[in-house]
Predict the 3D structure of the following.
Amino acid sequence: MFEKELTKPLELQQHEVLLERIPEDHSMRPEVERKRGKLNGGYNGEKTLHYFLGLLPQKSYHIFHGIRLPVGTTYFEIDAFLYSSKFGFIIENKNYSGNIRLEKNQLTQEIPDTNTRNVYENPLDQVHRHKVLLTNWFQKHQIPIIPFEQLVTFSNTSSIINISPGYLEAEKRVCKANDILRKINEFEKFYKRDLIDQKVMGKIRRLILNQHIQKGIDILQTYGIDKNEIITGVLCPQCRFIPMEYERGKWKCPSCHLISKDAHLKAINDYFLIINSMITNAELREFLHLPSARTATYLLSNLNFPHDGVNRGRVYFNPKG
């Protein structure tokens, strides 16, 4: 069924952490919040799609959410990919609100409440491009080609979808997320013969999972934020006060008096998300406000992170890659 489950996008996690660690009056905060809102809207739309894909019979398809595969020197991203022994589905999901009009050369979004009008690329062009790239990826890895069908789904329940008269391809390949089971069932009628066996299906699964690379960004560089502007310390998981204080192997919040043994884990992950994918003993001590290098060494030894080097030259790496 779900070979790659839906997870919160790395870029969204980075924006959430950045908003926790820049001052309320920071000049870039509105821009970071705007982008976070957009990323979160897309993620909510993917969760809606995930729900309806979960209603498919358990053994019907191998399903992958949010895959990002290499092509040349770059990558291509697919919101959802389903395949069986007979054929595959490439799905592009949109979470647009308002009145949506699909024409052959564009998508127009009108939001009555704000009196705004946005024009985007036709998502059918996107999903066709993904079909070409995925076909090339299959060929590169010497995987037998199966037919790929494409769908564009709209997951926002309040949106109104209007398709330009005579635009037959859109009528065939565009639907609301809650109608996806019916659409998939329509295409299933045309594919009755098995084209690949279990061995090939397993190879496809392994290759996708091994080659998928999450999309992350250098978020400080993106917004022109200096490392010294970041609020350091361990964030209280209960009242959000920062920094907590380390005393005798535990973290204590000066504000609500919560005691925690592992509140530093999120802080270290925050560091990896927005500052660097590697950290030294001295950097950990500074970021967590630890009392000594010995304490930092103790915490790092318990975490068992991948590392390189010895003594003061030792560097610890993000275990998530």
Notes: The mean pLDDT is 94. Residues 125 and 154 are 15 Å apart (CA to CA). DSSP finds ten helices and 16 strands in the chain. Residues 2-211 form one domain.
